[in-house]
Design a protein that fits this description.
The complex is a heterodimer.
Chain A (H helix, E strand, L loop, with lengths): L1 H13 L1 H23 L31 H37 L1 H15 L5 H10 L3 H27 L3 H8 L4 H37 L11 H7 L9 H28 L1 H9 L1
Helix pairs in contact in A: 2-3, 2-10, 3-4, 3-6, 3-8, 3-10, 4-6, 5-6, 6-8, 7-8, 8-9, 8-10, 9-10, 10-11
Chain B lengths: L5 H35 L4 H6 L7 H11 L5 H13 L13 H36 L4 H15 L2 H15 L13 H31 L2 H8 L4 H38 L5 H10 L3 H29 L7
Classes of the chains: A mainly alpha, B mainly alpha.
Chain lengths: ~280, ~325
């Protein structure tokens, strides 16, 4: 336990971006979890009198077209975005890692079939695959989770397969095969632990990516539906008002920026720490 | 750049043809995946399309099935879908009552102009900044650059675009908030900056790490030890090699911009491929979604093909594999 703690402290010392990202993300998570208790007002409470008030001492981030308090809505939006990001990346990670593991470990026709499928999915640029899935499933935040999850599957599959291909040639895997270990056991107890490093880096970066993609889809009207306090949707509600009431879309968008930034900083930090080659280089410079 | 020799010219066509042939199965698979996703996933497209039009009778559903060819066996639908796609026929849009190809060709120039302009912004910003920060690594410039690049990578497009509108259209009054022209610099500037900025962060970070990697190579040390000026070492020996991975990413990014332009086009109310796909998704206009997605995917695959050709030109070793 103590050694783990020491290791964490040492890690923190190596990478500044990891520390900054971690502090930022901790604040965001804490504020999101506490949102029901610390929000000044009900995020759904409308008020004709307070419509489009600019930021002031009462409403720190101002109010929207319906007089709803933007600070309260931004605070409540945190959990929505974190959940959407977490769930969609989990779908991509689980299915993608399974495909990559099977393809990399067994090789042969299984690999050929699975990887051609993955290649074809990768031929859909950017958010296009997610758009196709949404067009079939319909508009809504849950469908956005599934759509991003599916769109992320080929990325994880390719990463895992690449790593498994080189791990398969390692001496300890051959040794385990020689003493008659079952394939399943080799995959779970010999290969999987060695994948965790690169998966950790990639997953963290994809979390940020998934959150900004989901917010973008909601901005386009394909994700969260009114009156949900979702950041992308809130920003889109302020789009026409940008010259009149800049605060309506600026604050929710800024919340997305900070959240994505925290994940990118952490992912970069993990990479510095976990990639010994890069770490060494950095110290030399 | 490297001069082209007779051997190169003799080998190039073979490489191009091989690479071209490899493209065909991928195109075929992409079309198949689009077909499967649109048909086999639970939910009847006809019912989805009719929803929101009041009561739905079984006759209406059957009629629409027949109209869309959904009453035929799946395999027959698939074959005619592929056959029509090969002929460049993607059917007609349900909502716009026009041929899908015509709808797409009308908006394509807008998206191509935007993507290319965005790419120019990102290369012009990203490559020099990446090189400079690699050359001045560890200095305050490098630190500042890392912060800006990280910001660029993390910023949501919709937020950045709206912020640009706020500053340049409403506060300064320099540029219009709505982008209507295909090529007019005034209406292209803000959307291109929006789309290009986030890519610039990515390209700058990649250029920096690639440049650092290259500067560590033996031949750079050799060049320096020959007493060449640092400028010559950097420009002639390091830069070209450092840019090889950057070219790949630039090509891939340009391809994904075709589809990724959806958010930027929406922010600036600009017509385009991305916005067409989004409204087709919202209106459940299946033929249009199907055609637009294939269109964008084909564009992306062709882009990859072109990138590979540039890549082979930059790196002579690739050609013989």
């Amino acid at each position: 336990m103590q050694s783990t703690l020491k290791q964490i402290v040492r890690t923190m010392r190596v990478s500044k971006s990891l520390v900054v990202g971690f502090i930022l993300l901790s604040c965001i998570v804490a504020l999101s979890l506490l949102s029901p208790y610390i929000s000044p007002r009900d995020p759904f409470e409308q008020s004709v009198r307070l419509r489009l008030s600019p930021p002031n001492s009462e409403q720190w981030m101002g109010t929207d077209r319906l007089g709803r308090d933007i600070l309260s809505r931004v605070l409540h939006g945190g959990l929505i975005s974190l959940r959407v990001g977490g769930l969609s990346v989990a779908i991509g990670l689980l299915i993608g890692a399974l495909i990559g593991m099977l393809a990399g470990f067994y090789g042969g026709w299984l690999e050929m079939v699975l990887m051609r499928f993955v290649d074809a999915l990768l031929a859909f640029p950017g958010i296009l695959l997610a758009l196709v899935v949404i067009s079939v499933l319909g508009v809504g935040l849950n469908n956005v989770v599934i759509a991003i999850g599916i769109a992320w599957v080929p990325r994880f599959a390719r990463l895992v397969r690449g790593n498994v291909l080189s791990l398969r040639e390692e001496g300890y895997v051959e040794a385990a095969q020689a003493i008659g270990c079952k394939s399943f056991r080799i995959m779970v107890s010999h290969i999987l632990p060695n994948l965790i490093g690169s998966l950790l880096v990639y997953t963290t970066l994809q979390l940020g990516n998934a959150i900004v993609t989901a917010a973008g889809l909601s901005f386009l009207g394909l994700g969260a539906q009114p009156p949900a306090p979702e950041w992308g949707l809130m920003a889109s509600q302020g789009r026409d008002l940008i010259g009149l009431a800049w605060w309506v879309s600026t604050f929710p968008g800024f919340a997305v920026l900070l959240t994505v930034l925290s994940f990118n900083l952490i992912g970069d930090g993990f990479r510095d720490v976990l990639d010994p080659r890069l770490g060494l280089r950095r110290r030399q410079e | 750049m490297r001069s082209v020799t007779v051997v190169d010219v003799l080998h190039m066509p073979k490489y191009i043809i091989n690479r071209f042939i490899q493209m065909i199965p991928v195109l075929f698979l992409v079309a198949t995946i689009v077909f499967i996703l649109m048909r086999v996933v639970p939910g009847d497209p006809a019912i989805l399309m009719l929803s929101g039009q009041g009561a739905i009778s079984p006759e209406m559903v059957a009629e629409l099935h027949q109209q869309l060819g959904l009453d035929r066996p799946l395999i027959a639908q698939y074959l005619s879908f592929i056959g029509n796609a090969l002929k460049g026929d993607f059917g007609s849009s349900n909502r716009l009552k026009a041929s899908v190809v015509r709808v797409l060709l009308r908006v394509l120039p807008y998206t191509v102009a935007l993507s290319v302009a965005g790419m120019i912004v990102s290369v012009v910003l990203g490559v020099p900044l990446g090189i400079l920060s690699a050359l001045y690594r560890g200095t305050w410039f490098d630190s500042l650059f890392m912060v800006v690049a990280m910001f660029g990578v993390s910023v949501p497009l919709f937020w950045f675009g709206l912020t640009l509108i706020l500053v340049f259209s409403f506060m300064l009054g320099w540029l219009p908030p709505i982008s209507a022209g295909i090529l007019r610099l005034q209406s292209l500037a803000l959307p291109a900056l929006t789309l290009g900025f986030s890519q610039a962060g990515l390209i700058a970070r990649l250029t920096r790490s690639s440049m650092l990697e290259t500067l560590r190579q033996d031949y750079v040390t050799t060049a320096r030890s020959k007493g060449l000026a640092e400028r010559v070492v950097v420009m002639r020996h390091a830069l070209r090699n450092a840019l090889i991975p950057v070219v790949t990413v630039i090509g891939l990014q340009l391809g994904s911009m075709f589809a990724g332009a959806a958010v930027t086009e929406t922010v600036f109310s600009r017509p385009g491929l991305g916005r067409t796909i989004v409204s087709a998704v919202v209106w459940k206009d299946y033929p249009l979604v199907q055609g637009a997605v294939l269109f964008a995917a084909v564009g992306f695959i062709v882009m990859n093909f072109l990138v590979d050709l540039v890549y082979a030109w930059l790196d002579p070793r690739i050609k013989y594999t």
